[in-house]
């Protein structure tokens, strides 16, 4: 499987016109990025369809969209034109609620999956919980013969979520993020490495570009000196990532976490003095 | 709470006499290390009472011990003499089984807890599973007013174990290890940082000294640029670590993982196309 991972620059968007200009320019950059060949999937960051800031969140009435609107339409048309799946982030309106969502469309332009962020952050530079509602569903979908799960940014901090997806047979986690340089930045990469390895799957943690963002991380299912992680810079960057089922099998053979895991853990008693 | 963490050198031990010489010399070094004041607890690595190698594992008949034997006696006498708790690793004989155990004795010399490693490793340089049986109990004990849990080396790879201890109110995890420079070494520190932060507790991951070992890690409950981890060198090293309940509370206030965690995660359905 080949991924084209776009750590993209996103301009100021405070109204629909700003946003549509961004999407139009982004589509042009995506066409260029695909000149060297069309990947199985193009992956874009959390809320890729707009600026990430409290000021932009105050304009969500103008920037959000449902699955039938112009944001999704722009990406589905592009997916069809290029003949590739696209995973992109948007503020999704659903009834009276608004979600931080990652939407996957297939190369035929059809909806391949929607995931609404389960844990909306409210700490450091993140004021999401004041503007968005947490999701109520998990997503596992199939892209180019691979089982793909999605979690978004802060979701990373909760081990049970990736574990549940791994137990559903997921081989690749797409983790669109908006990590800015607050105190939570320092531990981000350690968490990604741990999640990839403890679940023995590929993990792409994709940020937006910029001096305050950047440093996206791609982890193979076993990270060691011979299988390092790939760290992006801070500018706009397009990385082609090749995933290999044999590497997945080899990771699971070398480090037999699946066999060694204790099925009886929850039932184990506590030690007590005699 | 103050910990004295001993990343100790351990000589060749292939018979009981080797081992008792090691324990005698270690006691002398511990006395010196306590000259500057007696900590609440002295922590020593996995299998601190003996060499860690396949050759030593072939001599376990001579090196193992039950809770009434000379190994435990050496440490309980020292705990009583110094007036501090001690957590040490040993090959523990229990009936027909043998465990990789961490034993905690209180400053009165009484047994404060026993933990038998739940996951015995069999990969890379680790041939434990051929010599040891996995444990069947968890340990949470109290030391100097702190709730303390223990996990050993490879146990680190399984998120559910530390999570269960954290849910029991544990504030400090003692993680004695024997990490040598095989492929598993590269990701060790990322795992420790993640486990400390995701459970919002202190984590001491303590290795034996030596060019092929070393680099023990101590993590506060929130790791960021202002609260870095402490990494040991490779030689024998005694570190005094001060733990603070206010720092625990502050970590949990700043990053509200406990409140944000989804109690309904296991029950969430999967997305399906309309």
Automatic annotation (TrEMBL), chains A, B:
Keyword Hydrolase: yes
Ranges of residues in domain CN hydrolase: 1-245
GO molecular function terms attached to this record: hydrolase activity
Keyword Hydrolase: yes
PROSITE patterns linked to this entry: CN_HYDROLASE, UPF0012
Record InterPro entries: C-N_Hydrolase, C-N_Hydrolase_sf, UPF0012_CS
Stored CDD domains: nitrilase
A Pfam cross-reference name: CN_hydrolase
Alphabetically ordered keywords of this record: Hydrolase
Family from the record: Belongs to the carbon-nitrogen hydrolase superfamily. NIT1/NIT2 family.
Protein name per Swiss-Prot or TrEMBL: Carbon-nitrogen hydrolase family protein
UniProt source species: Halomonas pelophila
């Amino acid at each position: 499987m080949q991924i084209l991972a776009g750590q993209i620059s996103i301009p100021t968007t405070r109204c629909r016109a700003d946003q549509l200009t961004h999407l139009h320019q982004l589509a042009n950059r995506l066409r260029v990025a695909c000149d060297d060949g069309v990947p199985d999937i193009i992956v874009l960051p959390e809320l890729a369809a707009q600026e990430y800031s409290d000021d932009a969140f105050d304009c969500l009435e103008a920037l959000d969209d449902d699955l039938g609107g112009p944001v999704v339409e722009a990406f589905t048309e592009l997916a069809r034109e290029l003949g590739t799946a696209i995973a992109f982030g948007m503020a999704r309106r659903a009834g009276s609620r608004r979600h931080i969502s990652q939407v996957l469309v297939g190369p035929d332009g059809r909806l391949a999956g929607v995931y609404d962020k389960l844990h909306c952050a409210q700490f450091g530079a993140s004021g999401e919980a004041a503007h968005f509602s947490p999701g109520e569903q998990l997503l596992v979908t199939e892209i180019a013969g691979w089982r793909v799960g999605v979690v978004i940014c802060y979701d990373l901090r909760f081990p049970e979520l990736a574990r549940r997806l791994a137990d559903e047979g997921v081989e690749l986690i797409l983790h669109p993020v908006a990590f800015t340089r607050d105190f939570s930045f320092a531990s981000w990469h350690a968490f990604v490495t741990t999640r990839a390895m403890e679940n023995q799957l590929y993990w792409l943690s994709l940020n937006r570009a910029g001096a305050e963002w950047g440093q996206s991380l791609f982890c193979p299912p076993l990270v060691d000196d011979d299988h390092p992680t790939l760290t992006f810079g801070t500018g706009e960057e397009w990385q082609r990532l090749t995933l290999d089922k044999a590497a997945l099998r080899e990771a699971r053979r070398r480090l037999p976490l699946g066999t060694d895991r204790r099925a009886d853990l929850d039932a184990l008693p506590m030690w007590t003095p005699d």
